[in-house]
Design goal:
The complex is a heterodimer of chains A (101) and B (346). Chain A is built from four helices and six strands. By secondary structure, chain A is α+β, with helices and mostly antiparallel strands. Chain B contains 13 helices and eight strands. The chains are: A alpha+beta (101), B alpha/beta (346). At the A-B interface, strand 2 of A face loops of B.
Chain lengths: 101, 346
């Protein structure tokens, strides 16, 4: 079943481009996480769209670099880690349609 | 040789010395605290808009210290206004930090508690704080914070009194459920400078105390002696109880970068010549081991200035940069200056 990904409500981001990282604050339970460029990019792309669309944009962005973030498992791994940190949340599209019906 | 620290355009984290009020009378108090708020301290009604402004301008973590933050009138209001915006840490002695208050702090969303211990037993701790019963209260505070689900660290300043008890303090912290223990150097600030001869250890004695520390299982150690001596200035931001930008609380006796209630902190950060110089890492000497682990150069600028009177001097608390400085001899008083290039060394 297709799923969408969004930033969790209340999460605040603090980009630090001069150090090529981003800090992400989760208020409940409180935690501050440091994200590398790959994780930061994935987080930025999680704007409520379907995972395949986010993935397409991600690989469009990192593909030419050929770095470790461009490997096939890197995107899925980043999504799982960001979800575990409480920064993003998934929603099944069918469930969403039922909820709104 | 030219050294360079990492660069930040604006500070993501800040320390707020929220008050110089404290019920205790610690012999080493860096703030020379009093029982009641000092004239000119910002009120909670002044702190809250200042903190909101900091958040809007990129600050995402606030570390509250004092004085005793919990003795600040309206402190919980300040904390309530901060936790939706920033990760929060509170350094406290734990006086009056009951189970109910710990639960309230957890409900408000406090991110981490840090409790000072000045000994492993009541006799040592209470003698250092000048307050009978303070060890019992600090101990209870650690337990209460842990029970409330708030990650909690124990902090201990390495002095002639705490060094012989370092292992016992670590055991005590672990037994109470603390996550980490931070062993901190003694700074010649406030009352600590006046009591220096009683409190300070030689470089060799400090090194020996750390070498004999045996960490209990599950307790993490934070310490910044060689080879972990960093020059934090590159990322440092701090506002004292009176709303003055001072960069770092350990610079409290030496600098005043301006009024953070009138000038945006980012503007001070970017334009003050001394602040910029301190962050640059352009120091006379850098320890290769420490710069390798920390990515910064020269060690702490506060102790470098305190002992040498030069902002670019080597940090004498670093084993390789000490060069024979006797750390048991109190450094001379340094006049508190304003900002400006007059502080810089040619």
């Amino acid at each position: 079943m297709p799923i969408t990904w969004s930033l969790k409500p209340g999460v605040r981001l603090r980009p630090i481009p001069e150090q090529e990282c981003c800090l992400a604050y989760v208020p409940r339970p409180p935690a501050l996480h440091g994200l590398n460029l790959s994780s930061w990019l994935v987080l930025t792309l999680c704007d409520g769209r379907e995972q395949r669309e986010i993935g397409r944009d991600y690989f469009d962005a990192v593909g030419p670099s050929g770095g470790p973030g461009a490997t096939p498992g890197a995107f899925d791994s980043a999504l799982i880690q960001l979800e575990a940190l409480g920064l993003i949340e998934r929603r099944a599209i069918e469930a969403t349609r039922k909820e709104t019906a | 040789m030219k050294h360079s620290n990492p660069v930040l355009d604006t500070p993501p984290k800040i320390t707020l010395g929220i008050t110089e009020t404290c019920p205790m009378r610690c012999s080493h108090c860096y703030a020379d605290c009093a029982n009641a708020p000092k004239p000119g301290e910002l009120t909670d009604a002044q702190w809250i808009p200042l903190i909101r402004d900091l958040a809007e301008n990129g600050v995402i973590q606030a570390y509250f210290e004092g004085g005793e933050p919990l003795a600040k009138p309206g402190f919980l209001n300040i904390l309530r206004a901060t936790t939706p915006l920033m990760m929060t840490l509170v350094r406290t002695h734990g006086i009056g930090l009951t189970a109910d208050l710990a639960k309230e702090l957890g409900d408000i969303g406090l991110g981490r508690g840090l409790v000072d211990l000045l000994g492993a037993d009541a006799a040592t701790h209470d003698a250092a704080t000048g307050m009978l019963g303070s060890f019992a209260q600090s101990t209870a505070a650690i337990a209460n914070l842990v029970a409330a689900g708030i990650p909690t660290d124990v902090l201990v300043i390495l002095t002639a009194h705490t060094a012989p008890q370092l292992n016992a303090i670590a055991q005590h912290a672990a037994g109470l459920g603390a996550k980490r223990i931070g062993v901190l150097r003694l700074y010649p600030l406030g009352r600590a400078r006046a009591a220096w001869s009683d409190l300070a250890l030689s470089m060799a004695a400090q090194t020996q105390a750390l070498a004999t520390l045996r960490m209990p299982k599950g307790l993490e150690l934070m310490q910044s002696w060689h080879p972990n001596n960093k020059n934090c200035c590159w990322q440092a931001a701090a506002i004292n109880a009176f709303g003055r930008a001072i960069g770092c609380m350990y610079l409290r006796d030496y600098v005043d970068f301006g009024d953070a209630t009138k000038t945006p902190y980012n503007e001070i950060f970017q334009t003050d010549p001394l602040y910029r110089a301190l962050r640059s890492g352009d120091v006379e000497e850098s320890c290769g081991d420490c710069s390798g682990t920390q990515g910064s150069h020269g060690g702490c600028r506060s102790t470098a200035y305190a002992f040498h009177g030069r902002w670019s001097a080597p940090d004498p608390f670093d084993l390789t940069l000490n060069h024979g400085v006797d750390l048991t001899v109190p450094p001379p008083a340094r006049a508190k200056g304003g900002s400006g290039a007059d502080h810089l060394v040619a």
